[in-house]
Amino acid sequence: MQGTMLYGPRDIRFEDRPEPKITKPTDAIISLSATCICGSDLWPYRGIQPIAQPTPMGHEYCGIVEEVGKEVRNIKRGQFVVGSFATSDNTCVICRHGYQSSCVQREFMSTAQASVVCVPLADGTLVATDDLPPKQLIPSLLATSDVLGTGWFAADAANVKPGSNVVVVGDGAVGLLAVLSAKQMGAERIIAVSRHASRQKLAREFGATDIVTERGDEGVARIKELTKGIGADSVLECVGTQESMMQAISSTRPGGYIGYVGVPHGVSLNGEQLFFAHVHLHGGPAPVRRYLPQLTKLVLDEKINPGKVFDLTLPLEQVSEGYRAMDERRAIKTLLRPRSGSESYGISKRTG
Ligand SMILES: [Zn+2]
User: Fold this and answer.
1) Each residue of 127-158: pLDDT tens digit?
2) Ligand 1 center to residue 287 CA distance, Å?
3) How confident is the model at residue 216 (pLDDT cuts 50, 70, 90)?
4) Is the pLDDT of residue 210 over 90?
5) How far, in Å, from the CA of 88 to the mean position of ligand 1?
6) Numbered ranges of CATH 3.40.50.720 in the chain
């Protein structure tokens, strides 16, 4: 089996790795149909989030179940499944409240840029489709695993409702799919903050009604102009920097909601400013598992096409070029096809 390892800043290697095996009776082994590179993978890739030793990469995945542990009841060999980047039992009290990404048994997936992956807590983490899906829907199904689920959580946490006016801060893949999510939830006006022509175009395809190119105070002023001087009902923060967080807080009307899903890097909030902003603030690692049944159904019914965020597709063994393209902003998001997965659903030669 081959998989992706990060050795240090901008040093990605695709190399031989031990074949994943069932070690706990609740595990499942999945042969991947597709995997991808996340914007959050760029933090360690750039060395901003340093690593102590060579580290396996990847947390977005979908594919065919090859083998399940003895205690796995619902997930079966041969099924097509999608799972979240965070594993969950889906039964503990936190899961039952819908926060599976903080499950008491949570682990973060970290080996998915590979041809085969072991998924812990398979019954709670994975969602199977009824039948093998049409192959052209695989990119969109893969997107539900994190990037769409995260954009959806931003919109849900920001209380987007029919008729809402919405601002999306960030034009990465999550921001673009936050636009799609807000549209699905019935937002009337969706203001996307973006400076890049290709991303603005996709934002409009996904439902953005206005584009703001300014950042910081100028960006806030422009958003206020577009919202009768009041600010937006819902602001979806999809970056995680001090500037983007402050732009989000200052763009929200008093009583409005902010859903923040950009992993914060060096963000600190001023208590007094937050107090007088009078906003609801809700975010964190998206509980993607809560949304997976609904999102996979929207994809299978061809109501949404989130797979459009993948503007570069490479064979998995070219994963290092995938990182470079995203690092240099030549690609919004890179989809990776394992060799076995490009011709089939990813069913490898393993038997038994
Ligand atoms: Zn749980």
Assistant:
1) 999 999 999 999 999 999 999 999 999 999 99
2) 11
3) confident
4) yes
5) 5
6) 150-283
Under the phi-then-psi rule, with left for phi > 0, alpha for psi from -120 to 50, and beta for the rest, what region is 43? alpha
CB neighbours (10 Å) of residue 190? 29
CA of 214 to the centre of ligand 1 (A): 41
| Residue 124 Cα to ligand 1 middle (Å) | 8
**What separation in Å is there between the alpha carbon of 343 and the centre of ligand 1?**
36
CATH superfamily of 150-283: NAD(P)-binding Rossmann-like Domain (3.40.50.720)
Beta-sheet pairing, 210-212 with 280-283: unpaired
Cα(186) to ligand 1 centroid in Å equals: 30
Distance 91 CA to ligand 1 centre (A): 5
What residue ranges of the chain are covered by domains with CATH 3.90.180.10? Answer: 2-146+287-346
Q: What is the CA radius of gyration of the chain?
A: 20
For residue 92, give the 3-state DSSP assignment: coil
Q: What is the pTM of this model?
A: 0.95
Per CATH, the number for 2-146+287-346 is 3.90.180.10
Distance between CA 256 and CA 277 in Å, rounded? 9
